[in-house]
Amino acid sequence: MSIIKRNIYLQIILLITLFSGSVTVSEAQVTFKASAPASVVEGEQFRLSYMLNQEGKDLRLPDLPDFDVLFGPSTSTSFSQRTINGKTTSERSVTYTYILVPKKTGTFTIAPASITVDGANYQSNSLQVEVLPPDKTATKGSPGASSSGTATVSESDAFIRAIVSKNNPYEQEGFTVTFRLYTTLNIVNFGRIQFPEFEGFMVEEIDIPTNQQLKMERYNGRNYYTADLRRTLLFPQRSGQITIPSGTIEMVFSVPSGRNVTTFFGSQELMVDVNKALVTNPVAINVRPLPANRPESYANAVGTFTINPNINSTQLRANEAISLRLEISGTGNMKLISNPEVEFPNNFEVYDPTVTNALNVTSNGLTGIRTIEYMAIPRYEGSYTIPPIEFSYFDTNTNSYKTLTTPAYDLQIAKGEPGSISSSNFVNQQDVKVEQDIRFLKTGEPNYHSISDFFVGSFSYWLWYLIPLVLLIVLYVFNRKQARENANVVLMRNRKANKMAIKRLKLAEKYLKEHNKESFYDEVLKAIWGYFSDKLSIPVAKLSKNNIEAELSKNGISEELIARFMQILDTCEFARYAPAESNAEMDSVYKNTIFVIEEMENRLKKRK
After folding, report:
1. How far apart are CA 464 and CA 455, in angstroms?
2. Radius of gyration over alpha carbons of the chain, in Å?
């Protein structure tokens, strides 16, 4: 099991690297850290390690009543040295390893160990280990040779689950979906990866550490090594049932063939590589609508929030700016919150608010502070009041609306500096009202009309009736035709195939400029596979190079153009896992893809 775990672990690190950024390594002066698997199987050995970055002595283990200590400690020392900008630093670490066997199932805590370094006593962290029951000796659907002699991978040996944190969230309430790999086999390689698209949700990706350790989890009465491949935070944008569709990941596993071979070291079972497409389960989410009794000040906020107001000054001169800042902090759909309304006096010149976000993506939602800054300029002296500001949100803890209110601000505006340009150009709205008898004077030459010149009954008068009637008839005919075409799903996908491909290629061009090789080739593959799916009316899951060639030949496409398509597919699939490509080679792939898609469109149009 240890060899399988190590091979799976190395492959999972490579797989997760596709969906995450660079790894940051942090250093500490003195560390004494304990490590062990988060879950193990009853009766199987596992390692308990203590790592110290300095020389220590008198290591003392805690009491381990739930485990048998078979061996230990074995000590290993490592030393590294590096020079940066002429400064040399060295690192030394000592690892103490014990071999333990759990006595029974359950969840147990390993208390901190202690060690002495330079006369000072240090304690390690505590650990929690879950002990799982062993698998039954006769496992149904174990991998190996089938009755026909072909090695297979059963559905219970390796699969991917889409796990959601909530199945019935409220509208705009955040929840997570995690794509978790379960396997008992060695992973050799992986191929095309296509996670589902989340239509009807606002999406925020949650970072997964690339150096995460494999965990053992018991599922359906069997123990699996598991790793999270992707974790996404979703905010549903409408109520009702929304389905997260299936995704696919192609992987190559090493499985026993059922045949033995004789080598220098004796008889060994022959292992073969088996390609398996793992399909995630579709998940139906029942999104509950928010209660109907929404306050007037509801700001489209769902979660838990607090508000902190701040004003720069309540005593200032006319034509000096007032800055009113609202800091909304908490956890929820922070990016979707509407700005609360602030009622400034009529004599204030008000500017559009500026919004800044300092947010972190967590499993419970977006956490942080949203800062909204309002700026207004009073143009005349006097006493004014900014009434209280209300901010209403839906509290997911109590499932009810709550309203937060800021205090009112009494402003004392002194007379501004004489000769101010701003004050001379601003109309005092308190002194001049539309309802008053005084009107602004109109300047310029007057326009005169003949008393015999009547609009009613003229040719222009009847055109005002005829033109709308003709436009209405044309619009009705056009809408009827459009409705019939929209009902034809295959036709609409066929028409939009080129647009969707160009849209994905624009994103690929962005990754090309950033020299992001993996993302570039991934987007080019999505564009080509999606184009074939829409243009040839073949579901993506059923697309293959063979049926694409057959369909293109049936539509009269030349062998030369088909060969160029296949060459681009092969180049992209190989280049994603090959060493770094130059910008010139990636640019050539990009231009060839655009050319062959345009050539395909032209030839299909000529056939029609």
Report:
1. 11
2. 35
- Which tens digit of pLDDT belongs to each residue from 477-536? 888 777 766 655 555 666 676 777 787 788 878 887 887 777 887 888 778 778 777 777
Residue 87, token pair as written in the block: 């400064």
Q: Please state which of the four CATH numbers 3.40.50.720, 3.40.50.2300, 2.60.40.10, 3.30.930.20 is assigned to the domain occupying 31-132.
A: 2.60.40.10
Q: Which segments within 184-340 are labelled E, that is strand?
A: 186-194, 201-206, 215-219, 222-236, 240-244, 248-263, 266-279, 283-287, 298-311, 315-317, 322-332
Q: Side-chain half-sphere of 423: how many Cα atoms within 13 Å?
A: 15
Longest dimension (CA), the chain: 118
The secondary structure of 315-343 as a DSSP string is EEETT--EEEEEEEEEEE-GGGPPPPP--
> Which helix or strand (DSSP H or E) is residue 570 part of?
helix 559-575
- Tens digits of residue pLDDT in 11-37: 555 555 444 443 333 344 778 888 888
User: Minimal CA–CA distance to 276: which of 387, 357, 181?
Assistant: 181
Q: Which of 409, 281, 391, 286 is nearest to 344 (CA)?
A: 409
The yes/no answer on whether domain 304-425 falls in CATH 2.60.40.740 is: yes
Residues 6+ apart with CB under 8 A from 104: 42, 66, 131
CA distances from 459 to 218, 466, 472, 473, 549 (A): 85, 11, 20, 21, 63
Classify residue 471 by burial, with Cβ atoms within 10 Å: 0-12, 13-18, 19+: exposed
CATH node for 154-287: 2.60.40
